[in-house]
């Protein structure tokens, strides 16, 4: 006599690389809050502004001349999909902060199209964040944030602003687009910080 009902297989073990509540996808879903901006790299600029108003600006060619890295990371979207082992190329954010006089604790990323998202500065340095311009060996498609996007893979993907064109360093934390309408201010997928109160 069987103790387990026929056809019952249980849940199985969740993938150890998946945060709680996430499912694995092999494709790369496209989710955006508005229309996809089409930014010509010849007109693209990236501006870093400190809390005192000091500005540094790079054209596309100047930006691409900065030291870059190829890196492989897992991505976790607040809509519960995860994509593992994605390979990117980009400039580490700490290279943009090199020789910048700042004591700011926070940053607000800005994008073409008006999108913003906030993040503590400590989450942008020490190999935690990049401004990425290549995905899987190819130039980054506009649908995935090209020509360049912020990539902070240890946080939910809405923190990795598509079509990024600048970072403003701040003394005070300022909620960005999604954070202002109910998404969690930090967004740690391992703690399921999806919405206010999580």
Automatic annotation (TrEMBL):
Gene3D superfamilies: Oxidoreductase, molybdopterin-binding domain (3.90.420.10)
InterPro entries xref list: OxRdtase_Mopterin-bd_dom (IPR000572), OxRdtase_Mopterin-bd_sf (IPR036374)
Species of provenance: Sphaerisporangium rubeum
Record region (Disordered): 1-20
Source organism superkingdom: Bacteria
Upper classification of the organism: Bacteria, Bacillati, Actinomycetota, Actinomycetes, Streptosporangiales
Start and end residues of each Oxidoreductase molybdopterin-binding domain: 34-178
Official protein name in the record: DMSO/TMAO reductase YedYZ molybdopterin-dependent catalytic subunit
Pfam family, one: Oxidored_molyb
């Amino acid at each position: 006599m069987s103790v387990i009902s026929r056809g019952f297989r249980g849940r199985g073990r969740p993938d150890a690389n998946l945060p709680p509540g996430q499912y694995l996808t092999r494709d790369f879903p496209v989710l955006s809050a508005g229309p996809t901006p089409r930014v010509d790299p010849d007109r693209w600029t990236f501006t870093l502004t400190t809390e005192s108003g000091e500005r540094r600006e790079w054209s596309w060619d100047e930006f691409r001349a900065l030291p870059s890295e190829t890196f492989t990371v897992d991505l976790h979207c607040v809509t519960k999909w995860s994509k593992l082992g994605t390979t990117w190329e980009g400039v580490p954010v700490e290279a943009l902060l090199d020789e910048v006089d700042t004591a700011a604790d926070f940053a607000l990323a800005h994008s073409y199209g008006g999108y913003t998202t906030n993040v503590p500065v400590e989450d942008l340095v020490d190999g935690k964040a990049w401004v990425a311009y290549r995905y899987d060996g190819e130039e980054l498609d506009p649908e995935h944030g090209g020509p360049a996007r912020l990539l902070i893979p240890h946080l939910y993907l809405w923190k990795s602003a598509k079509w990024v064109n600048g970072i403003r360093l701040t003394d005070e934390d300022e909620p960005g687009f999604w954070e202002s309408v109910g998404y969690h201010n930090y967004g740690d997928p391992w703690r399921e910080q999806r919405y206010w109160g999580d």
